[in-house]
Each structure stands twice: as C-alpha cells, then as structure tokens.
Amino acid sequence: MTDAPPSATDVLIVGAGIAGASLAAALAPWRRVLMVEAEDAPGYHATGRSAAFWHESYGGVGVQPLTHASLEMLNDPPPEFSDHGFLSPRGALTLGQRSEAAAVDAFAAEFAAQGVDVARMSGEAVARMVPGLRPEWSEAAYEAACRDIDVGGLHAAYLRAAKRAGATLVTRAPLRRARRVSDGWDVELGSGRVRAALIVNAAGAWADEVAAACGIAPVGIQPYRRTVMQVRLGVPVPADLPLVIHVGGEFYFKGQSEGRVWLTPHDETPTAPHDAAPEELDVALAIDRMQSVVDWPVVAVERKWAGLRSFAPDRIPVFGADRHERAFIWCAGQGGFGIQTAPAIAALLAAELGAPPPGGAIGRVDPTPFAPSRFA
Questions:
Q1: What is the three-class DSSP state of 135?
Q2: Is the pLDDT of residue 2 over 60?
Q3: What phi, psi does 318 have (nearest 5°)?
Q4: Cα(146)–Cα(138) distance, integer angstroms
Q5: pLDDT at residue 48, as a whole number
Q6: Which of 129, 173, 244, 257 could form a disulfide linkage to 189, CB 3.0–4.6 angstroms apart?
Q7: What is the DSSP string of 164-212?
Q8: Per-residue model confidence as pLDDT tens digits over 332-366
C-alpha cells in the first residue's frame, strides 16, 4: 500500500475488494494499474463479510458458467500465484418441504441440464445427513462438489500477485469526481489527482455512485443488506454439515465448528450503500426459520454481522466497457457470488483491457451476456 497515487496510470481500478484485486492481478503484467480504495484497508465491505462457498448452482443458470469456469483456479491455482488451493470440502443440500417437491425436482432438472452434478435425494438419506431434521423437510437435491472458500486467503493472494506484477494500491482514496479529457480521465481522489486512460468501476455497492461521479449513467446496481450470524447450539451438530439452502430462498446454514453453525435468513433488504450492520429482527427471523427445519436449541448468538450484496436489474454480473463511454469499464453487480466467480470475471475482463485471452474453461465462457450493452 502507498499513501499517494502516481500522477498517471493506464488503468485506474476503483475498489480493492475481490473484484478489483482479482482484475488487478490479471491485468498488471500487461498494463500500468492503480487500485484506489476508499477504506483504510481493502476488502472491508462485501469481501470481508462473505460466508463464501463455491456452489455451482448458486445465483442461477446465468451465473453458473462463470462459477464453473472458476473452479480450476480456485482448486489448483498456478504455482506463481499460490502453493495451495483455496477450497475445502462441504457439499450442499437444496432443501424443501413435501409441498415443495416439484420445486426441488425443477431445480435439479434445470441444473443437471447445465451439466451440474446434482442428485435428487430421498427423505431418509437427507435425514441421515442432517441430524435433527424435522420430518416434513423430506425433499432435497445434493451437490457433492460444493466447497468452502478461504476468502481471506484468496483476496490476499490476489493483492500479492497484483503488487508483484507492478500494480499500486492506495487506500483512503475515494474517487470524488472524474472528468473526460482527450487522453482519458482527469480524476480527483481523496488523496490527490491522477490521469488515467481507463477507469474500471469495481466499487461494489457504490458502483452507481462512482459512475455518476464520472458523468456516466448508472446501470441500476442496487445494494441489499444480508445478515449472517454464528450460533452455538445445544446439540452436537457436526462441523462438516453440508450447506443447507432452502429451495425457496428463505435461509441457508452450514456447520462452522462442532456444535456451531453459520446462519442467514437469506434477507435482501434494499438499502443505500453504507457500512451495513445487522438488525435484531433479521437475527430472530433466521433462528426461527432454522428451528422450523431442525430440532436444534440455540444456546447463544456468538457473532452477527451484515454485508451488502449488489445486483444489476437482471441479477447477472456486469463487466465490460460502458455502452456510451468505452473508456469507462464496469466490473460490478456480483451479488452474493462475487468470490466464486472472481477468477473467470477477472480473466475475461483483463483480456478485454490488454491481457492475453484466457485458456481452459474460462476461455470457453462467452462474455457477451455480461456486457453493459445489454442495458439498452
């Protein structure tokens, strides 16, 4: 990190969370890159508050190609990036009540058609996997490939890789405004001024505000508050409990350590971008929903936090040049799946900005559906 920006750069990336850091690591070997972060440290907001997992069906069929393509790098990164992977076993159950059997059937069929390894399970098999499961929750589809992600380790590795490749990171440097000039942008930061040929908007919940400060029309990035907590239970639930996620989107929970789970009511409360904090009503709602599924007494809420998940109007990530201003690049709207799609998004966008085209599974992803030009 540095306290003052250079006077000029090829690419100014606004935001140093997982979106900005992964792009900087992919692009810095080929272009001069400056990352600016408004907070005291990178990853303070959505990245640092993620309960992340690699779950291929999470986010829907529009997101799944990016998730699938990112698996290889997350599981087996190149040696120059890391000497270990960032995934650990978990497994995932998409769960429903008897009355939701058709919804679970449709979920399994939809993702099996996409090539996802998803298996319909009997109620008896689900009950063996989730101790204390109430009998009415008998419908499930299982994805054995679901993994936990070491978010902190992944984010730190991207920042190290970007720095090794020559990228500069400046913290406490919010973008105040930017003016289009003949050779790019004249940018006023909280810590000085810089000329940049391109601006990349990787500002998460603040993406539309950054666009407005640059004179660019917003695409409609909406932040939503999501509440997560760690609860200690009065029964010995195993730490390797699968991710259990409601087919209707009303909760998910997963084992964290012996007798403890991470839990969310899967809330999505529209909000302005800010430093999010949990609401007690959402904490209570999460516990109530979990206890309607499993017979687990809650002894204590040990931690609780909230973060902002930011979506485009169609809930699909947005990356690429703005449809009216080609020197303004979007990298936003990653919702709750920004960590598990970061390798693919970074490599595909970096290729648009001067890096070589990616190979392998990422190279087979068509970036067209994610372009800002879809918002006509």
A1: coil
A2: no
A3: -120, 115
A4: 20
A5: 67
A6: 173
A7: HTT-EEESS--EEEEEEETTEEEEEETTEEEEEEEEEE--GGGHHHHHH
A8: 999 989 999 999 999 999 999 999 999 999 999 99
- CA 23 vs. chain centroid, Å, equals 14
Strand partners, 257: 260
At residue 203, what is the residue type? A
How far, in Å, CA of 78 to CA of 163, rounded?
Answer: 17
CA distances from 365 to 63, 272, 300, 344, 369 (A): 11, 32, 45, 8, 10
State how far the Cα of 179 lies from the Cα of 162, in Å rounded to an integer. Answer: 27
Of the candidate ranges 4-13, 169-178, 181-190, the one whose mean pLDDT is the lowest:
4-13
Q: Encode burial over 142-180: b for 16+ CB neighbours within 10 A, e otherwise.
A: bbebbbbbbbeebbebbbebbbebebbbbbebbbeebee
pLDDT of 43: 84
Half-sphere exposure of 315 (CA within 13 A, CB side): 11
Residue 46: exposed, middle, or buried by beta-carbon count in 10 A (0-12, 13-18, 19+)?
buried
- Burial letters 345-356, b for 16+ CB under 10 A, else e: bbbbbbbebebe
Q: Write down the residue that tokens 């068509």 correspond to.
A: 366
What is the C-alpha to C-alpha distance for residues 149 and 105, in angstroms, rounded to an integer? Answer: 28
- Helices and strands per DSSP (H, E), number in the chain: 9, 20
pLDDT at 235: 94
Position of tokens 């992600």? Answer: 149
Name the residue among 43, 300, 41, 22 with its Cα closest to residue 152: 43
Question: What confidence tens digit (pLDDT) does each residue in 190-204 have?
Answer: 989 999 999 999 999
Look at residue 261 and give its three-state secondary structure: strand
pLDDT at position 373 is: 95
